[in-house]
Please model this.
Amino acid sequence: MSFRNLSSFLTELEQQKELRRIRVEVDPELEITEIATRVVRQEGPALLFEKVKGSPFPLAINIFGSARRIELALGRPPQQIGQELLSLAQSMNPPRWLGLWKSRKALRRTFAMHTQVVLWGAPSQQIVQEPALDRLPVLKCWPQDGGRFITFGLVMTRHPQTGVRNVGVYRMQVFGPSSTGMHWQIQKGGGFHYSEAERRGQNLPLAVVIGADPCLLLAAVAPLPEGMDEVAFSGFLRGSPARLVKARSIPMRVPSEAEFILEGYVHTDERAMEGPFGDHFGHYSKAAPFPVFHVRSMTHRKRPIYLAAVVGKPPQEDRYLGNATQEILSPLIRLIHPEIQELWAYYETGFHNLLVVSVRQRYGKEAVKTGLGLLGEGQLSLTKCLVLVDTNVNVRDSHAVFRAIQQNFDPSEDVLILPGTPLDTLDFTGDAMATGGKINLDATRKPNIRPVRKSPPQQSFHFLKERDSRIIGWKLLDDALLVVQVGREGRSILESLLYDAALEGIKIVAMVSPDVDLEDRESTLWGIFTRFDCVRDVTFTEMRLDGPVARYGGRMGIDATWKKGYPDPLEMNEEIREKVNVRWDEYGI
Model:
């Protein structure tokens, strides 16, 4: 089924019993976040809040919060689309009649990548009014957020020189009835367009779409190659062209079936403090200066639905969005790197913090070459930890990945640490915003097989508390990684523990803070990979300089404890938790 707008998709979700209506009044300040967070963790339905305090408009959330709803939005499993794209690309190199015939369904979809122009009667322009962002049910998601944020707006821009279009999802803090922040992170298409406009001294026109059809929403989330048009790609996903209409106040075309459209300009050389904001790394990103969006016109349907999303500690709705885009796009990496079988970024770690790649090696150290190549590819260049494994290892199974590390990883040969590299803007562990270290671990099987010492059993680590009273708990992950929980002074405890002979057979020791639930795999991976810098917080029992080259050996240690200067992890106010507890039956979920 092809959905032309958000309303038709929500109708289908309701018919499929994948949506619940909440008919009592709710507060967009924190209450909706607490409700939505509970529902997504229970793998519950999409939610439509019909009465939102302070706004005449209903609000939809968690519409992509399950694999089934993603499949309903696309009309087929996302991995099928990935294989279609790969087969189509391969059939064109060179074009072969048999290959084209086998890829005929995908080929037909490419004809839907052009757009249709609607001359009049566009539903998204049924109401045209002065900017009134204060009438929208904009969320304040977390207690320490700097204000209310538009969290699922599709920002449409064009390159000032080439006219190439970009559609991306960037958070927007509402400053007033007609202005917002524009959080263009590193490696974002809209940010590149703004940089060019600023270089030319030109204000950048843009439109923000709130509530689009599901295929355009998914295309905007996807990390497409720079210069690839998300609107056109949505036509491929949908199987029918996107319909656009001329904007009312800016030189641009906008979706004709959207719920809301904000039109305006981002001025050059203007910045305002934006944030803090509770982001998908599970912490608050700090306030920083970002460009300002000035809204000139606001259009919407007669009965529009405002679309929002919440991010935070995993799992959240972005788990399913991120996994779906991986399944669609990751097969295409084989066109550049045919040695790759599969790659997978872990939502538990905020995606960019842990990437696992399986490689079919045809010569020595090809896996290392592949890893270095991936760190220069688009959004993959923001990866912090990259683990290379053999093709018989399921990259989506963290148990299998850690077992491969235990069997095949030797720090003296298989680790590469890169200082001073670009990281996700949301990463707070480096020396400066968007800057920090990267680490590559080669856990592929080597010709000179080394004997693997068996790790001690889980129950044998009771001696840890006797050795150091500051140790709270521990968990052994797949015989490879010993996670030790401490209240403070993680680095000093780590440095003494690494040399303990009782840990013989353990490849890696990681220290985490008390807020990490060691019995929950998601929480453990989140607590490790979001809280260390690969240069400042990684150590080994053996380290030396060989000329200008650092050499490592022995056991690897990671200090992943919360440190002074880090932003706070996300926690909801107890008052809001209790409010939702009391009202839960009212919601009818």
Notes: The chain has a mean pLDDT of 93. The longest strand covers residues 549-559. The first helix runs from residue 6 to 15. The two ends are 26 Å apart (CA to CA).
